Protein: Terpene synthase
Organism: Oppiella nova
Amino acid sequence: MTSPIHQTKSNKVQEFKPRYPIPEIHSVLPFNENPLHLVDPMDSQFKDWCFETSLFSRDKFRRIADSTYYAAYFYSFCTDRNRYETLTKSMINIFILDDHMETTWGDINRKEVKAKEIYGQLHEVCDKLSDPGNRSIRMHVWKPYTLGFYAIYEDVLSVYNDCQRKRCLGFMKEWTDGMIDECVDLEANKRIENLTQYMEVRGRSTAVLFFVQLIEYADNLFVPQAEWDHPKFQRLLELATYLVALSNEVYSFEKEVKERDWNMDEVYNMVAFYVRFKGMTVAEAMDSLVTDYLKMEAEIVALKEEVLIEDWLSPDTRVFVERIILEDNPPKRGCLAALSLCVLYADTYYTSKKHNFSIITDCGLYVAYVLYPHIQVIRNSKY
């Protein structure tokens, strides 16, 4: 009998020395874990549900099964069990789609034609969610994980108003197009030499705005469109997107090149682009991105304080902003730290007193936070 997930520790803990050492990032962002995380039988049930739709072997699915940590730390404030389950399924499903895109064993494998075919199904998902009665959409040809995607967001949109549905579907389409554009750029060997150019695609393919928007679902909030469009609110979202992208480029770099047999030409990552097109070393590229990260982190912390005293904020929008990033005092519920510093990293476990972070075996979830002791990960032997 499999032991309950909250009682079973991984037996594959080992010290891992990365090929490319990761620079320190002294972040000031706090975090907190949702108490619903890893509670069985709920945890096992939604992992089983996602596994059945994934088209991955159990070994390959194990790499992403613990992407539940993303939901646990990003939506730490969600108290509704049904919504938390939906959010967690959503997170795993996104990683299923991501692995089908980025890995050599995935259905897409970074091929432009396959990306347009399979991610094109997600455009059909959006069309079907917008018009459930549209019988011209051929759902029977969708991949199982596409059907899973549809089922998840059918639940989300069922509690949204028209404004929220439009916003959610818009970000969903942007993310889909961003993932396709990554494959287009790689096949065309497009030169990408600066962050502004890079974020034209990466700002969409990281899905940050999509995840942030789901705070409304997680906490039963509604941000009016006029407030969402306010320049200061938009700058908060822009900075959040940059922070997630920058930390991802550094922390996920080795995982990404490893998955492509160490070929940087097949990796959509700013570290790789700096090395290829600007002649930097990997260390120089990472240091440059860390410098940019810290500048933007300081700006978002200051801007958050400024926004919270604005008189145009409605009560729900005020809570929404607080959910993105809070001060380092209880309750530590800022979600930006979780999303920007939880990054996928393959088949390793590494702990360091110097960096205070850990990488989790098999699932490859890379949880990093330099100000606090590393998060102890307890996981199900089944995955």
